[in-house]
Structure formats: structure tokens, C-alpha cells
Input
Amino acid sequence: MAHKLFRLAWRNIWRNANRSLMTAGAVGVVVIITTTFFSLVGAVQNGLYVSLTRITGHLQIHVSDYRQIRRWQDLLIEDAEAVETLLMDAFEATPIELVSVLTVPGLIESEGRSYGILLQGLEQPPAVRERYTSEYLAAGNLPELGDVTGIALGEKLAQNLQVDLGDTVYLYTPGTEGYGASAYLVTGILTVPNSEATAVSSLLAAQELAAPGAINRIELTFPKLTRTGDDVDLFALAESARAGLGPGYEVETWSTVSPGLASILGLFGTVSLFLAAIFFILAGMLVANTVYLSVIERVREFGVLRALGITPREVVLMIVQESVLLCFTGALAGLLVGTLLTGLMAQGFSAPGEVADFLAERGFPKIFYGSVSNRQVAITVGFTFATATLAALFPALNAGRLEPAEAMRFTA
Amino acid sequence: MRAAASESNPEEQTFQTVITLSRLAWRNIWRQRRRTGLLVAVVAYATLATIYFWGFNDGFNNSILQGQARFLAAPMLVTTARYHQDPNPENALPDLDIAAELATTPSVTAVAPRLEFPALVRSPYASQGLRVRGIDPQLEPAISEVPGKIGEGRLLQARGEAIMGIDLASRLDVRLGERLVVEASSLAGPQAAGFKVVGFIDTGLAGVDARMVLIHLDDARMITGVETATGLALQVPNGQDLRLRDSLQAKLSDELVVLDLFTLLGALATRVRVSRIIMLPVALLFAVFAALAVTSTLVASVMERMKEFGMVAAIGLPPQRLAVMVVIEALLTTLIGWLLGLVLGYALIWTLSTWNVLGPLFASAASGLVDTGIGEEVYTNVSARYALIATATVALAGVLAILFPARRIRDLDPVTTMRD
Output
């Protein structure tokens, strides 16, 4: 009897091609759109990951136990060039962006105004410099590599000092090893966080002022890490750095250096769960409505079958078989198209011109990479399947409860 | 449906036809509850979810800004126009008369004077240049979240007391009960004063924990020689700051300005603004999805009734008229669903914008929420704009959906359709 039921189910599917297409289509469309949704959200999260890790770099290197050290001099990494070379050697095979930083607390003065600030002497590779400029520079230019007379001021600091581009400021760093005092020309204005206490110069300028040849921080960014999922690679990379540097240095990942940034990423994960719920409810409705309406109209047909002797249980079985077949086909088709789409998104896509520039100025990458996890795909297919089958079962079960004659007269 | 002999005007005939078809359509809707119910449900949900999505997206980002503002600055701030350009104590407010008037303004729930000045903060072990803020400990808790985030110790109460960010304290190596010296040079010439540290601020925000020092307003006045304050901080309901700015500005003299949250936060706010834009593709995808859901339900509900249509056509209703009737049915049902979705959707976001339901929900889901400095309050935004977006989605879906089935109905052959 089971074999006969299956043949009935099969014929039913082909007998009304439009209805079957609609059911399978609904399942397929839901799978496609939901996986695209996951891929999009994944892309946004990856973009967020890149933008956050660019703030601090993926890894930061300081002297050992730097958090406990009080004296500024004890935080210095004296032979900066040697350390940089060690790191370049350790990562010969991996592309890296290395930023060397010397931060010096000091006093900045203009006509009659003076403020305590933290001077940042930066040496950045061209790609990093370009991104930094695009995101933070509001006017003028960043001091060039090796420029010992130029300085860029935070917006609020420039306001407090009542200076603008082209004006002169004086910097005092008493108790340090360099000149200890120098005059600078304001070449740029920056919109950085904490702009009231930030000034940026070239590394050389800061070194001459306070500590020749020394730095107190190195930031390493790995351009290959473009997705949130790539973050796990950092542990191995940190180990390589430690191995290359030897004792006396502390290598930390970005989430250790800045837990606040890490929690922003986590927060996004929570928000996307909320969004997924909204999507899944809609998905459920789409599938359930389509399938339910398809089956409910056939109650008359079931009535005829019942009158011919088929038991309610067998009617339900037949429906289940039809449903499984159609859902499977639909899900398969949906997965194929969905995989194609998400695969394309995983290659990388950009927003249209102006929007991409706008985002880049806010620290986001120009290219977004979509990503979907296997678990997400499994949940999507499983959910859609279950919903479709349940939606088909309800009317079938109801039909089973009716007398054949009643069923044959049934209107939805 | 032949026209009665007395009818002569063709327009009148068409009108009558439409009325009759509408009545048939209306009856059909209530005759088949299940089908109508499903369509109403999906249209209502599509509308509701669209409204909620946008209200949530906008509101969430606003909540982040509000949260940061309440720690770092204030929802709104009144200063002199010169101070806004040059934040120096010498540009302080001329008098505090305006405070009383602002306090009685309906939407302003609290007013607190603040005196901020650049200073050198010294401990026995280290020193740092910072902006120190003089507050009124009685009034400040109504404006700022900081007094509620004292990790160790307590809020300052009298002159001679100070509180500071916990990371700053660690950097300067200051323990609870130890002394701090604040040096500044302003209208009163070079001044210095010693303070006892009575509490540490722990908010999770670097801008506060690593940089904030609060002393009593009168001490700040003594040090700077300013008799009034550099600014009046105002507490206003969430998201109202921009709306209130113009009406408040009208009350102020020309030399004063009132600043809204975004202006106060500056660069910090832009990162949050980007998040809104970046969600656009997702919103678009949802709109497509919603349209498809409505379409599929409409198509399914019509296609399944083809036998019924065949029969109705066989007893005399011309298929063209039948098609019009079905379109009217779809329109009416969609309208009901859309109205229901609007009412429920706005009820939802209005509730969530008035009561802090989302805050605790997020706090339980994401443990790191505190670190992001959002605070514990998350609200949705309410705007008429969302109704437009939802309507466009549903309308598009409805139009697309009805085109295909309507054609099929119009072209049907009664005999074959009945048999199918």
C-alpha cells in the first residue's frame, strides 16, 4: 500500500504543476533570501571587524609588563629599528603593516595658552597613512615621513590654543632625553577621538624631541585578516611575534588592548540575532501560507479519496510524501542559487562610489566580504522544511477528522 | 449583470457595476475567513516588521549616542557663543539668571551649572594635564549618569572633595582617601588647591575613566576666578534635543547658544551614524522578502479558487468583471492588513520608545554591553517616515501579485476551469 501511496503522491505533484511549482518555489525563495540575509549581515560584521581592528592594529607590542610601569623612560623600546627588523623577519611570508609609535606626554603652548597633551610620533606605511588621512584629517596635511618641523593638532586642541594651519606652537617635554623643547608649524587639523589632548608628528620629530631612536609601541595589522572568523589566526600570529622578538616584550591582541572594541563586535552579534528573528518569522509566514493554502483546497479531493476507502492516516502519509518531495526539491534549488549568490558575495562587493567613500572616511573597508556559516545554512533549511511540512499536515489532519461526505463539500 | 433598461449613462453603469462587485468582494472576504485571515496576517506582519525594523535601527543608534552623551557631556548644553568657539573659562556665562527660566520650560527636566577648565592634576607620583569639571553635587545626578557609576567610594558632597576616573587614578597612582592637587591659571591668576579623593568613577568608557576629574563648583570658581559657570547642562527626554534646540535658542540672548547632543559629541557620533547607513541593504532585502511573502499568499489564495471562479463564470458573471472583483477583494484585504500592521507597529515602537524594555533585554543577551558605554537604556525611534516605507513595500507587492492572477481570471474558460 505504501508503494501505491507514493505513486499517488508522485502523480499529484505532476498533475497540478502550477501548485507544485508554487510550493517548491516558496521553499526555494525562502532559502535563497534567508541565506542572502545571513551573508549580508556577515558582510557587515566583517566590515565592522576590519574597521575596529584598524583602530588599534591586530597586535600591539610594548615592553614587558608595560601596564605596571610608571616611569615614561622605562616604557621605551630603545633600538626601534632592530625590533622592527626582527618583526619583519618573523613575518617574512605574511604581509603585514607595521606602525611604529612614540607617545610623549608634554606641554603645548601657543600665544598665552598652554595645555597638557600626549604627542604621538607616527611612522606609518603608505597604505595605513592613506587610511589614517582619509578618516581623521579635516584640514591641511599629516606631517611627512621625517618632517621634524610639522605637527597636526586635534580639532579641539587647535580651538583651545586658538591656532590654525600655518601657525606656530611650542612643545615642552621636560625630563626626557631629546631636545626637550621645540617649535612646530601646524600643518594639519585632525578629527580624532580625544582631540583636545592629541597632537601628531612624524616619528623622527618625536624622537628628536624626547627619545632619539626609541619608540614605545608597535602596531601590527595583517591585511589578510578580513573576516571576523579570521580572528582566531591571531593567536598563532602572536606566537610568531613572541618567538621572533625574544624576551622583554609583550605581544597583545586587539581585544586585550581594547575590550571596548571587542564588545562592540559582540553587540552587533546580538543585534543580528534580533534581525534574524524578524526574518525567520516572515520566512515562516511565506512558506506556511503558500503551502497551507495549497493543501486546504484539496480537502474535497481528500474527501473523495476517503470515500474510496483510503484511511485518514494514509491521506496524511500521502501529503507528507508530497510535501517532503516538493520541499526537498525547492530547498535543493534554493541552496544551489543561494550558494551561488553568497559565493559571489564572499568574493567581495562594494557599495556604489560615493557611499563607499563615505564609509571609508569612517574607517570601514572599501570592499565587504559576505560570509555564511554552515550552521546558519542548516538552520535555514531545517526551519523551512519543518514549517512547510507542518503547514501541509494541519489541513490534512483536519480533513481526516471530517466525514468523507463533509470533506467533499468543504470550502476554505 | 445586464444593465437595467432605465440606465442610460455608461459611467453610471460602470459605477453601479463597481459597487455591486465591491459588495460581492466584501462578502467573499468574510465568507472565507481562513484565506482572508492569512493574507491579513502576512500584510500586517510585513507592515509591522518594517516599521519596527526602522524604529529599532534608528532608535538603537540614538540610544548609543544618548548613553555616551550622558556620561561624557550632557543631552544639551548652554554656553556663550564665544565659549563654543574657544572653550576657555574666560568665556564663561555672564550670569546664571537664565537657569531659572530654563528649569521651568516644559520639556527641560533638570538644569545643572558646570565649570570646566584646563588644569594640571598632580598626585605625589605623577601628573597629567586634563580638563577638570566643577559640578553641583545636588543637581548633577539629574543630568549625568556618572554619579551613578561610582565604583569605589562615593560622590563628592562638599568642598575639598574630588572624584576621578578609575583608570586615571591607576595611572596617577592615587588611592581612595589620598590627596590630589589641581593647578590652573585663569582669571584669578595661577592657583592651586588640594583635594581628597573620595570616589572612583567606573563606566567602562575610556573618555570618562581615563580622563575625568570632578570637584565642587565652588572650588572650581575659586581656582579659576569665574563667578558663574562655563555652561548650563540640560536634561531633556530622549531624542528630543534636536527638536527643542530652536525653541530653547529663542529664549536665550544673542550671546548664548544651546548645543544639541550630536554637536557636543562631534566625531564620536559619526561612527554611530554610519551604522544606520550600513543596514540599508538588509532593510532592502527585507522589503523584497516582505513583498514576496504578500505576493505568494495572494497568488496562492487566488489560484486555489480557480474552480470556484469557473463556476461563477459559468452562471453568468463575465470573467472580466470577475477579475475586477478579485482585485477589489485583494485590495480590501490588503487594506485591512495594512491598517492593522500600522496600528500594531506604531503601538509597538511607541511603547518601546517610552519604556526601557529593550535595555534589560540586551543586557541579558550581551554581557559586554556596559563596556560599550551604551548604558542600560535602549529605545526605539518613532517617525511617520516608517509608515511610508512599509506602505510602499506592501503596495508594490500587492500590485505585482494581482497582475498575474487577474489576467488568468480574465481569460478563463468556465468549462475547463471548473474541471481542472
The mean pLDDT of chain A is 89. The radius of gyration of chain A is 32 Å. Chain A touches chain B through 67 residues (CB under 8 Å). Strands of chain A lie at 59-63, 97-110, 113-123, 137-140, 150-154, 168-172, 181-190, 198-202, 217-221, 249-253.
